[in-house]
Known about the structure:
The chain is mainly alpha-helical. It is 55% helix and 0% strand. The protein has helices spanning 4-19, 46-59, 62-70, 80-100, 109-113, 117-120, 123-134, 156-167, 169-175, 182-198, 221-232. The protein is globular, with a radius of gyration of 19 Å.
Amino acid sequence: MQSYAPLESSILQSLNHSSLLVYIDTLGAMSSSSQDLRSTPLPLTLQHRDEIDQIVLKRVPSSYLKMIIEDEGANAATIKPLLAMVMIGTIDAVSELLRREHLEDNLDACVAWAEGTLQQHPELRGIIRHACQTRSFSHIADLDIFQKPQLQASDPRARSNQDEDRSDPLDNSFVRPYVGKAVDGFHDYLKNNNMKFDGRDGKGPYYAKFCSILQSSGTGKSRLLIEVRVMKRMFI
Length: 236
């Protein structure tokens, strides 16, 4: 069996070849304390859930699903990156569908991307393994750990937060329709970098698949990455 590092590397390489991978490091995004994995069903129909399941099955190679299923307890170190792939793929698929259907997207993708999620919630491993066995993934997103906490409408803090959100230019910049061709240009740039890394242009290989986005605060870096994920079906 392969060691952890080579296996994780092969997974990232697979993702890059199929859809490119823009990885945002979210170490420490979660608190160190664990909690019971309670769930609150999202407003999804059976048709929505079936669609999400099919999307995840297309994004995660069947060989990886088989490895997760065959590893009883899903505790082996080599399985960790596979579990993360299923988890991230599911949250992204559900988030995309909620936005498409103009439903509230209350999912916190940072939790799915955080390095310590599986370690802080060991029972999550069994839930993901069961999802692979049943080919039913949408229920992973129903877990409360992936949903942002909400205040009741009667709570004065909720009304205050809503008023602040409406007047916050940063918040508004993520709500307004995206304008411009930056997404297409950045996507082409990533594809060209991917070709250079593979040596398909006849030149030497690059050290790693990554790039830097440098610009002043508030100029659209985060919104660009979000739109690339949504519009180009890329892992962010």
